[in-house]
Amino acid sequence: MYLTVSVADVQGVIPVAEVSVLRPVKVFTTTSPDDEPSEWVSAKVHNLSLLARSGVPLLVKALHDDRSVRSDKGRGRYGFFEKDDGTQVPRFHGSEVALIAFAVQEVLIERGVLGVYGNPVPSRVRAKKAAQMQEDQGGHETLCKGENKVQAGKECKDCRRAHVVIKKDGCDLCTNCGTVGSCA
């Protein structure tokens, strides 16, 4: 699946100054013609496009809600989680819907429309940064290697991979990213 998020310079006035800020206007994806879920994926990204044109806060709410969607078909792997020590571990999402929402959020964070935690950046802050932003719209590459074997354990709250949190020396330990949770 290839995902594209188009942004446009939108002219406006903030208190008394004329400004130009980037705003998402279209979310587009292409999938294989043999792919079963291609119709719902197209409908989902069309909905995200309508929300993007309606306003960033509406799009952010939808992306936040989509990130919590869980599927009985299994998890999807996309992106990485950076631990405190700087190492990166694969990030897992509860469904394809959550994966698409995460990918859109990442593009908007990279473009400066959203902050690091996925919240909208105020227009005046974006207007100040607009002169510094480049027009590079580089895509995201999915790095999915290896098998997704089911293991015993719970889901990690940091990297969101399922069946990887185990008890070790009385503490919860994520076997994927190494996060240590609550201890008995």
Question: Topology of this protein?
Answer:
Blueprint lengths: L1 E13 L2 E14 L7 H17 L1 H12 L8 E7 L5 E6 L2 H15 L12 H8 L34 E4 L2 E4 L5 E4 L1
Antiparallel strand pairs: 1-2, 3-4, 5-6, 6-7
Fold and architecture overview:
This protein has 184 residues and is α+β, with helices and mostly antiparallel strands. The chain folds into two domains: 2-80 and 89-130, no CATH class; 149-184, no CATH class. Helix content is 28%, strand content 28%. It has four helices and seven strands, in the order E-E-H-H-E-E-H-H-E-E-E. It has helices at residues 38-54, 56-67, 96-110, 123-130; strands spanning 2-14, 17-30, 76-82, 88-93, 165-168, 171-174, 180-183. The strands form three sheets. The protein has a three-stranded antiparallel β-sheet, with no helix packed on it. Helix 1 runs antiparallel to helix 2 (56-67). The longest helix is centred in the N-terminal third of the chain and has 17 residues, at 38-54. 25% of the residues are buried.
